[in-house]
Amino acid sequence: MRALVTGASGYIGSRLVAALLAEDADVVVGSRTPSNLRTFDFYDSVTAVSLDVTDQQSCAAAFAESGDIDVAYYLVHAIGESDYRVQDRRSAEQFAAAAARAGVRRIVYLGGFVPDDDHLSEHLASRADVGEALTVDGVELVWLRAAIVLGAGSTSYEMLRYLADRLPVLPLPSWLAEPVQPIAVDDVLHYLVASADGETVPAGSYDIGGPDVVPYRDLVFAYVEAAGLQRIGVPVPFVPTSLAGKVIGRIIPVPAGLAEDLVGSLHNTMTTSESRIRELVPDPPHGLTTIADAMARSVRGMVGEPPGVCALKDPLRLANTDAAWSGGDALGIRRRGVAASSDRTWSLIEALGGRRLLSAKPVAAAVRTNLDVVAGVNRRVASAVRRLTDTEEA
């Protein structure tokens, strides 16, 4: 099998390349700047071509240079950029048209769930647009639809981790009671690789999810438990996701536009509507990865490994080519909560409407006082860790 992988430098794409190579596939990787892929440990094992999905001529040239492609993986999204919905749809149309002209047999696309909801977020609506744009005559489309992907380096996981690491008190808006069915990245790769085979997975749309369905807030505290943290949850009702996205985008290192767009989807119910793919593709030997197992594996090995090594050892671990803002706070002391700031936490609670709730209860002063105590302890722990680190280096 000869496969073209778009988005090969991204979180899913880099791990997929390694997984396909492990299955003895002949892999072509597309990038706007192919030379940048030299930092990946799989570079010498693939064919790199120049590919810019926003440019029609570039799409045609990439397929011409790639030779006979059996399956093309579409893993490109412009989320977080201005007017990304229009850009995403146009790019998908151009890519699919070029694939059809090149005689590509199948396109495999990883998108998001499309809930039966009249108020889809811009993010989910854009993912649906791309799936429709990739549907062209003469090319089979397998559209895999997932919710949150768990694993160190995943944007959703990193957002969750930074919030839990940095805030000793976690604001809990009411929409965090909505159910979510996340899927670990190793299971995503399992389905992506299987979807290349038309005899195993016929063309069509398939929901993919993990074995657990929980409220979003339980997902947050699953990380808290795995990381060995002590955190308090404070309900903050009547907070729109749009406001939460803007606030969160300014207190964590994930790009603000990206954070806002992802948080904007959290009011939608994100669970599978069907599970047909499990009838076609057997579960992995050890079963689908649970939330507890995914969180436990994701907090290990915070020093990033090369993407190929990471993908083969455990895709949920951090790769050294994952986004520069992923991986937690400096010195690995984030697990002690040393990045937490009482001012930052209290400001977030106030911004999300927590003052209205707490002012009616005799707990506001205690929460504020405890935040100050936690922050003071955190600063002392950070200082001690730095002294120990300096001593060990000396």
How is this structure best described in words?
By secondary structure, the protein is of the alpha/beta class. Helix content is 42%, strand content 13%. It has 15 helices and 13 strands. It has helices at 11-22, 56-66, 84-101, 122-133, 155-166, 185-194, 216-226, 241-248, 256-263, 277-280, 291-298, 307-313, 342-351, 354-358, 364-393, and strands at residues 2-5, 26-31, 47-50, 71-74, 106-112, 140-146, 149-150, 169-172, 179-180, 183-184, 204-207, 214-215, 232-235. The strands form four sheets. A seven-stranded parallel beta sheet has the order 3-2-1-4-5-6-11, with helices on both faces. The chain has a two-stranded parallel sheet with strand order 7-10. Strand 4 (71-74), helix 3 and strand 5 (106-112) form a beta-alpha-beta unit. The longest helix is centred in the C-terminal third of the chain and has 30 residues, at 364-393. The radius of gyration is 22 Å and the shape is globular.
